[in-house]
Amino acid sequence: MKAKTQRFTILHSNDMHGDFFAEFQEGGGHLIGGLGLLSGYLNKVRQEEENVIYVIAGDMVQGSLIDAEYKGLSTIELMNFLSPDVVTLGNHELDYGLPHLLFLEKMANFPIVNANLYIKQYGKRLMTPYLIMQVNGFNILFIGIITETVMDSLALDQLIGTFVSIEDAAEEVGKICNAYKSEDIDLTVALTHIGFESDIELAKLLKPEWGVDLIIGGHSHTILEEPKRVNEILITQAGVGTDQIGRFDIEVEDATNSIINWEWQLIPINNETAECDHSLEEFIDGFKNEVDKKYQGIVTRFSERLTHPVREEETSLGNLIADALADVAETEVILIGSGSIRGEALGPVVTLGCLKECFPYEDVLTKYQITGKLLKKMFSHIMRVENRDGEGECFQINKRVQVIYSESKAGLETFTIDQVPIEESKTYTLTLQGYHFANSEANLGLTSEDLTAQGSPRVVTTSTLQVLEEWLRTHPNVKSVIDGRMIYQQ
After folding, report:
1. Is the whole model's pTM more than 0.90, yes or no?
2. Given 59, 197, 345, 362, which residue has the most CB atoms within 10 angstroms?
3. Topology of the domain comprising 5-288
């Protein structure tokens, strides 16, 4: 019997993070991104091509005021409008808690797959692990995999967090492939949210007999010129937001269950590549109008626009937030997670909506007593080179602190508070967000016992966002600059 071939177009997004609205391109007049134009491109391709599959590799939620206000419900409704064929979980899908995620899953008109989150006491997977799609006589297997950093969010729920475990990605892909990879499966796709470098490592571990053809990933926000080929598996990702979409045009042969021809492009989403889907824009405006009424009041005005372009480095916006919260906490050292600052810029006029969109986490803030020796250990951990790889947990700190780290020596050169070197035997105050205390070993290199050994901690506030808002209201025209708080030397 002659081998049968079939063409497919696989479109893929990842890390959309509430990027709902089109914006004018810097230096030009083109509108770029936004769900209206993205939907228009999807509509166009679905009309032009016969076998179109649209997938999302995690992190649909978090990053916009609309998403935060409706705790992801609005985002799922908008995703229903886009109608993806299959989605995998990202770590931010759990930002509103596991019970809420399960509610969001019921709202979704599309399958959400994940194979490596388990209810560990019973050895049961938490979600549907895979999907087999039948498209024009061909069977396509999708397997969902999530990053281990999802456990950081789950750790905040002390009850549910103890019931959930994350299992080895390669092993779980192997289990699914061994059980369901037969002659009837023509194409196998691992839909991951673990980061591009981790995708490469995963591909190296997958046995050729399992027949994985593609890894479509997310989490690290990686922009590629072309897919990377590892262990005969094509690996790709589509950056972050809705300014672009990945597109695979592939030809699959059923006799060998393999891709025999392929082309991949990173398609810009703008008003040249797509016509806006105005019905979706009107749907978004319904959410936006309600949110604008509630959050359009002005909180403060900065002396200039403050920025937070990358989380691995000190930023002017990060410095302001750290200084404001350190002032409220009356602490010598404060660590504010760079990832909890969701916007790349804020101001000069700051509305309540802009503030909440930029800093959406209603986390507890707690002050601890800690020795200078443990402070040194903590900063050696967070400043190490391997933590600054795009996937580590990085921090912004307050102006009283300066730490110089030697990369060649892999350790601290100097560490001062108020320009005075810290003493290892002396006790200092350290203020942390609840997320980082719950995950202190991974994020800080310290145990919870280390942080509480010098006495009972004191809760500064149960809502970091609320105290930040009140501080900003009483500090107009504030300035913030990058002044060298954490310095890296060769």
Report:
1. no
2. 59
3. Purple Acid Phosphatase; chain A, domain 2 (3.60.21)
